[in-house]
Each structure stands twice: as C-alpha cells, then as structure tokens.
C-alpha cells in the first residue's frame, strides 16, 4: 500500500485549483442565495392617516395623536416568561399588568433572532433577512446610517421635530443618523463578558433624563437633557448574562430586578410629567428576541422567538386585569402577536405589520376604524409592489368571503373582515419577503459541481488501491451523508448521523481480525468517547427535554471543577511522558556530559512551560467552576503575580503558548533528532490553549480527544494504513467534537462566552477568531493531530478530505437551491449554508490545509 500511495499522489497544483474553484463557486452562490428583501420606495407622510380616514369615513376627524411622549425601552433577550412568567423577578412589571395599567404580549420574532435584524423589524416593520444576521457581527464605522432612507417610526418622529434622546446599544447609531437624535450615548453590544458596566453606562443617565424642569436648569450641558419627546434605551446586560450562564444563571434574578427597577423609575417619571403638563405618555418595554436554555439565540425555536412586549401608560385603565392566556408553550404568555405588529400600532408606516386591535381599543378606541383603514391601505401598497394587484384582489375576496368583493367593498365591510385581510396579507408577505439573484446562484452552483468533479479526480487513483470493504463502507457513508442534506430534519439533527457514523465505523474497525488487542481497545474507547459526546450536549432544534450531562454537572460545581482539574492534568501527563521517552532515547545515544546537561535543561524548561500553562488555565476557570471556599488562597497568590483578573490570565496563557511554540519551531529548524516529542508538545500546548477558550462545562471533553488521537496514530502506524479510513475518522472526530461541544446547524448554538478572553476592547477580527477557536476547539485539535501523521499518508488523507468537504458544500447548495421557496429556507437552509461555509473555508482550508501545517511543521 505504501508504494502505491507514493505513486498515486496527485499534484499540489491540481489540489490548489480545486480549492480555488470551490471558493469561487461558493462566493457566487452566496451572492445569489442569501436573500435581500426589496423595500418599497418612499415614506409614509403624516397626512396619509387623515386622508385615509376622510376617504373611507366622511365624518372622520383630523388625526390627533393618542400619545405625545414615548419611552421605548429595549431589554436585549427579554423572553416573555422573564417578564410575565411565574418565576419572573420583574414584580413592578407584573403589578402594572395586574392593575390594568399595562397590556402584556408575547411578540413573536422571526428568525434570525439576533439584535440587528430584530431592531430592523421593531423600527421599520419589515421582515429581516438572514444576511442581516451576518451584518450584526460587523461593527465598523460606515459613512451613512443603514436606515437613513428607510421608513421607520424613528424617522417619522425625527421628521415631525420630536426631541429624541438615546442611550444603550450603539447598533441604533449604526442604523439611524445621529442628526435625528438630540442626544446620544452608545455602548458596544459585543463585549459579552461584561454584565454590569454595559447597563450602568445607560442607567447613569437616568437621573438627568428623568429630572424635573427646575432640576434640569441647574445641570450643565454635559448631562443628558431632561426635555424629550422620545426616550430610547437599549439594555444589553440580560443578554450577556444569558450568553455566559443561560437563563438559569445565578445572575439572572438580580438582572431582572435591575431592569424592573429601571422600568419603575421611567414609569413614575411619566406619571409626574403627565400630571404636570397634561399630556399623555406611553411606555413600551420590549425584548428584541428570546434565548435558548443554553443562553444563546439566532435560530427559530419558541424559546428564541418569544419576546416580551409591554404597553403601559398612566392614562390606561383596562376594564379588568389581563389574565395570562394558556398556551402549549411555557415561553408564550398572554396574547401572542407578531413583533412587527408593534410598528403600525405606533405609527402607520411602510411595513409588513398589522395593528394590534387590543392595544388600539385600550389606548384609543375611537380611532380603531380609521387606523384599520390606514393599515389596510398601507399593506395593500406593500403587497401590490411585492406580489401584484391580482394577489391583493384575491386576498380581499377571501377575507370578505365573497368572490365578487373588491378592495373598496372590503374597506366598507366589517372590522372582522379587515382584520382577516391584514392577517392574510401579512402571512403572504412574511412567506415571500425574500428574493434570490438567480444568475450568480446558478453560476456558483455550476462552478461547485465542476469543483466537485475535480476534487474526486484528486483521489481517483489511490481510491482504486483501497480494499473493496473500505470502498463500500466509506462510499455508502458518504452517499448517505450527502443525501441527508435534502431533508430539513436531517439538517437540523445532523449530529445524530455523525454520532452513528463515528461510533459504528470505529466498532467495525475494532472487530477486524488483523488488529491487536491494544488497537482494538483504543478503537473501542474512541467509540465510547463519541457516545459520551452524544450524552454531553443538548443539540438540535427538536422539542426534547434537556437531559444532557453538561446540565447535570451545572448543578454540582465541585464535581465540575474536579473534572476540569483532571482534564488539565491529562495533557500534563502526556507531555511528561513524551519528555521521558525522549530522554530515554537521548540517553541511549551516549551523549557527552555537556550534551546531557543541555538536553536535560531543555526538557526541564518545556516541563515548566507546560506546568505554567496548566496553572494559568485552571486559574482562568476558577471563578465559574472552583468551589468558593477554595478561591481565596488562589486569588491571593494570583494577585501577587499580577494575574488576578481574567484578562491578565488569558494573555499570560497566550504568551506561554507562543513562547513554547517558537522554541519548539527553532529546535525543529536546527534539525535536532526526535521529531515525535516536539509534535506531541506542540499538540499539548495547543490543547491547553484551546481548553482555556472552551466553556468550563465542556473542558472535560478534551480528554476524549487524546483517546481519539491515539486511535488515529495507531491506525496510521500500521503497514496497511488506509488514507480513506483515516480521512473518514478525522471527519467523524471533527464533526462529533463540534456537536459534542454543543454546536448545531443553528445560529443559536454559537457560544460567545469565551470570545473576549484577553481582550480589553472590542475587535471584530480578534473576537471572530476567538469565537471560531472556542466553538471549534475539538475540530482544530484533530486538524493538528492529523499533521502528526508522516507523509505521504498525511497528504493522501488531506486529499480525501478536500473532496468530502467540496461534495458536502455542493450537495447542500443543490438542496438549498431546490428548496429555496420552502417554509424553512431562512430558518434551516440559510444557517446550514453558513455553517458549511465555515467547515470548508475555516476548518478544512484554513485549519486542515494551512494553520495546522504552519503550527505542526517541522
């Protein structure tokens, strides 16, 4: 087999050409696939409402605003049950509902459930696209605000000369021109590890913003103004608490109480102002999205889409307190509406939203008929531009229940018929709000197909020398995997397929009669580690109870820390064993006394470096996992070393790893013997670095890597080693490792809790890099492990991995194109395509082919 391998190696030029072609096809496909919703040109003039009223009701009066003052408070990731549920700590909010001074809703947020798209929906009433979720993480200065030429209630307020003040998430300042605001103070939304300052930087302005006129006159101009018509606040701390510890975090109750106190302060101030000037004020409390039980968001589960919405006013007195409405989901309480329905309820705009009847009836009952007419007219214009006049006529007939009814007949019919039309029109718009650029989409798809054919040719010759059993086994597994992309449920639950493939493949190898008992034992242990992966994380998007081991461990912090302690000693033991073996090998070469002293000193330095990185890593995890009674002495010791904060510890770990790698690489260039121990030490330092970037509950999973690494190494040392089998195992270990860490094909599984280790300020490039390292730590380790295999076996294995990733990308692109008008196109296929881009571009090209080669090169 070895001789055949050396003759069958394809050229590096062909390999590069295939990768470049796949990247070009991917770029074209992404340009055409990720949809952009076409906005209707123009804005909604203030006169539209009065004109509509007079058109359909000759006796209608001129418009008079129901409210002249608005306080709009966004609490990031405020799930409906956080505000209204039985376990909520927002007592004042609940008291407003109980007294009839507020109307509670569950506002359903459409995917993608991340901040920028949801702010777009909350202010413009339009349905965001998946591309908005990508733009959400790009915090760069732009020459103009994104929504300067888009209709929104913020623009309407600004054009009417309202005094608008803002404090909070600076995403607002990237969406709307600063000229529209009389005063602003933005805070970065991406420093997830901060749960305190990010909110106190907003609350510190409340004393000035809520001051009386006389108090305001005594303050200097540096303070926030007390005179305003629209107050917008966006708090981020609750979302950050969720990212770090989930909805059951010990910090969550106090954070809810903090937000509740903010709402109470603002509401009391609105009462005072209304009593002083006789005007009417409205308080809107809204969450932009919810969060999963893991604390993340971005997908389309009920936990992520069920956001809280509260409309409160000192002038509101409902007939009776609003009782909680029973729903099948515990995340949805009271009346359920679409989140975009808030926009036309506040103002008549160029949006897809429909009025919330219960809010209009309670806040301004006399205006319901005119408001409905204006809302119908507005949705007619949007739907006509999107689907054509024929679609409008068809929906009007369906809503009126009369095949001969026209739009004018509908507007003269009952309120119920108009409500039905609004519902039908909104459903139609939400279902068809995406458009695709077919030329780049099909062009990219065609290029990907040719790239796949070229990729298969890379391993055609070596494939012929594989055993028949290997060709059938690997071939069937590949066909089954590619076929899974044509079913949404398989895409959502991809982890189940990989757990099966990985464990089954290892067991089939273990029962081969030519394997020794030690090889069989290693393979069986590797299969068991994959079974542990399956039980460790709560993956997927199906509604199943969370019985994962990681959840159980979160209830026992002492046990969690004990496992972390063991996990950190595993690479230490591996490093010491490698050094001891190298020392014995060196001793057999009969060195001189000077050589022995120098080599012993070198080994001692490396042992100390590994030990230092172990200590730093354990210290980093102490605050979340170590028992409180054990933190005191360690904290004092770290303080003496000026390592008493997470930022300093992270940087210390980076420096130790960097120094160790530089010395190992220098020794490699000096061509000193014994390459094996240097590769092992490089792998040890990399694993310790990635452990420090892994969520504490997942650190024990790194132990499984060393078992799997040993299994791959033993297979590679066999005389009949098969590159196809090795490629299959590496792909399986990388995939199961990713899913074992909690990953999935949903944006909600992206873990940001470790993306700021060592950073004192936000940097898009560094945060993106750390996010990749923390979410793909196990796949990265297997990439490095692959490069410990000697050539030519390593090169042939990599050339099997290139066709695998190219075929997977092409199959998913074909499926996404075929089902581009599917109900789940935005919620399933779009994030799956993005993840597949990461697997091909970052995991395979960036790590398998480039980074791992640079790190492990000797």
TrEMBL record:
Q: Which SUPFAM superfamilies match?
A: Alkaline phosphatase-like (SSF53649)
State the compartments where it is located.
Answer: Endoplasmic reticulum membrane
One annotated GO molecular function = CP2 mannose-ethanolamine phosphotransferase activity
Instruction: Tell me the PROSITE patterns matching this sequence.
Output: PROKAR_LIPOPROTEIN
Swiss-Prot/TrEMBL GO biological process terms: GPI anchor biosynthetic process
UniProt domain GPI ethanolamine phosphate transferase 2 C-terminal: residue ranges: 434-856
**What UniProt keywords are attached to this protein's entry?**
Endoplasmic reticulum, Glycoprotein, GPI-anchor biosynthesis, Membrane, Transferase, Transmembrane, Transmembrane helix
Q: In which pathway does it act?
A: Glycolipid biosynthesis; glycosylphosphatidylinositol-anchor biosynthesis
Q: Which family does it belong to?
A: Belongs to the PIGG/PIGN/PIGO family. PIGG subfamily.
Q: Which PANTHER family match?
A: GPI ETHANOLAMINE PHOSPHATE TRANSFERASE 2, PHOSPHATIDYLINOSITOL GLYCAN-RELATED
What is its biological role?
Ethanolamine phosphate transferase involved in glycosylphosphatidylinositol-anchor biosynthesis. Transfers ethanolamine phosphate to the GPI second mannose.
Q: Which protein is depicted?
A: GPI ethanolamine phosphate transferase 2
């Amino acid at each position: 087999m070895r001789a055949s391998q050396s003759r069958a190696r394809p050229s590096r030029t062909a390999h590069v050409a295939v990768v470049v072609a796949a990247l070009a096809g991917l770029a074209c496909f992404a340009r055409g696939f990720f949809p952009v919703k076409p906005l209707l040109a123009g804005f909604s003039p203030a006169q539209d409402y009065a004109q509509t009223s007079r058109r359909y009701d000759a006796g209608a009066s001129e418009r008079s605003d129901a409210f002249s003052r608005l306080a709009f408070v966004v609490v990031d990731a405020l799930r409906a049950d956080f505000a209204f549920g039985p376990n909520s700590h927002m007592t004042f909010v609940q008291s407003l509902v109980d007294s009839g001074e507020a109307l509670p809703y569950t506002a359903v947020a459409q995917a993608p459930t991340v901040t920028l798209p949801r702010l777009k929906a909350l202010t413009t009433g339009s349905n965001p696209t998946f591309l908005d979720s990508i733009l959400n993480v790009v915090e760069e200065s732009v020459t103009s605000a994104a929504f300067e030429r888009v209709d929104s209630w913020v623009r309407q307020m600004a054009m009417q000369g309202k005094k608008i003040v803002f404090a909070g998430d600076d995403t607002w300042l990237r969406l709307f021109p600063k000229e529209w605001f009389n005063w602003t103070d933005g805070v970065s939304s991406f420093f997830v590890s901060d749960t305190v300052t990010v909110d106190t930087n907003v609350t510190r302005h409340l004393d000035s913003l809520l001051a009386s006129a006389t108090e305001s006159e005594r303050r200097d101009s540096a303070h926030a103004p007390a005179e305003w018509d629209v107050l917008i606040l966006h708090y981020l701390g609750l979302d950050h608490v969720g990212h770090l510890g989930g909805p059951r975090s010990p910090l969550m109750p106090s954070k809810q109480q903090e937000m509740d106190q903010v709402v109470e302060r603002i509401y009391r101030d609105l009462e005072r102002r209304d009593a002083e000037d006789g005007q009417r004020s409205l308080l809107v409390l809204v969450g932009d999205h919810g969060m999963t039980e893991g604390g993340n968001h971005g997908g389309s589960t009920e936990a992520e889409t069920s956001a809280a919405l509260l409309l409160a006013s000192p002038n509101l007195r409902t007939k009776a307190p609003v009782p909680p409405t029973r729903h099948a989901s515990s995340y949805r309480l009271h009346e359920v509406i679409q989140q975009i329905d808030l926009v036309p309820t506040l103002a008549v705009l160029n949006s897809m939203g429909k009025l919330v009847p219960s809010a209009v009836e309670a806040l301004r009952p006399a205006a319901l008929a005119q408001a409905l007419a204006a809302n119908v007219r507005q949705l007619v214009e949007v739907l006509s531009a999107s689907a054509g006049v024929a679609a409008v006529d068809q929906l009007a007939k369906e809503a009126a229940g009369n095949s001969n009814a026209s739009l004018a007949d509908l507007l003269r019919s009952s309120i119920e018929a108009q409500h039905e039309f609004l519902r039908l029109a909104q459903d139609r718009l939400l279902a068809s709000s995406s458009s695709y650029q077919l030329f780049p989409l099909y062009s990219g798809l065609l290029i990907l197909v040719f790239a796949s054919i070229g990729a298969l040719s890379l391993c055609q010759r070596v494939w012929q020398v594989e055993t028949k059993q290997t060709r059938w086994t690997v071939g069937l597994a590949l066909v089954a995997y590619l076929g899974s992309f044509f079913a949404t449920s398989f895409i959502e639950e991809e982890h189940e397929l990989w757990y099966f493939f990985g464990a089954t493949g290892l067991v089939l190898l273990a029962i081969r009669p030519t394997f020794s008992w030690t090889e069989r034992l290693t393979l069986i242990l590797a299969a068991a580690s994959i079974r542990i992966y399956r039980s460790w994380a709560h993956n997927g998007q199906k509604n199943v109870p969370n019985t994962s081991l990681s959840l159980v461990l979160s209830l026992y912090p002492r046990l969690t820390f004990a496992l972390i302690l063991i996990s950190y000693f595993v690479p230490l033991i591996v490093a010491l064993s490698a050094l001891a073996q190298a020392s014995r090998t060196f001793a057999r070469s009969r060195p001189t006394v000077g050589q022995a002293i120098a080599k012993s000193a070198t080994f001692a330095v490396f042992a100390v470096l590994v030990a230092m990185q172990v200590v730093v890593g354990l210290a980093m995890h102490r605050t979340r996992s170590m028992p409180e009674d054990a933190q005191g002495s360690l904290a004092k010791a770290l303080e003496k070393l000026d390592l008493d904060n997470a930022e300093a510890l992270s940087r210390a770990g980076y420096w130790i790893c960097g120094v160790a790698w530089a010395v190992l690489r220098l020794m490699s260039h000096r061509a000193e013997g014994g390459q094996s121990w240097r590769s092992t030490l490089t792998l040890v330092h990399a694993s310790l670095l990635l452990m420090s970037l892994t969520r504490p509950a997942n650190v024990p999973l790194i132990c499984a890597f060393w078992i799997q690494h040993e299994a791959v190494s033993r297979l590679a040392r066999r005389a009949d080693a098969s590159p196809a089998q090795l490629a299959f195992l590496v792909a399986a270990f990388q995939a199961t490792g990713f899913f074992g860490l909690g990953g999935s094909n949903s944006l909600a599984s992206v873990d940001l809790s470790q993306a700021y280790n060592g950073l004192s300020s936000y940097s898009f490039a560094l945060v993106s890099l750390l996010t990749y390292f923390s979410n793909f730590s196990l796949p990265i380790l297997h990439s490095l492990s692959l490069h410990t295999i000697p050539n030519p076996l390593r090169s042939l294995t990599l050339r099997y991995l290139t066709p695998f990733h190219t075929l997977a990308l092409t199959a998913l692109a074909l499926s996404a194109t075929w089902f581009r008008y599917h109900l789940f196109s935005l919620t399933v296929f779009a994030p799956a395509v993005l993840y597949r881009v990461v697997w091909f571009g970052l995991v395979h090209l960036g790590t398998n082919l480039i980074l791992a080669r640079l790190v492990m090169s000797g």
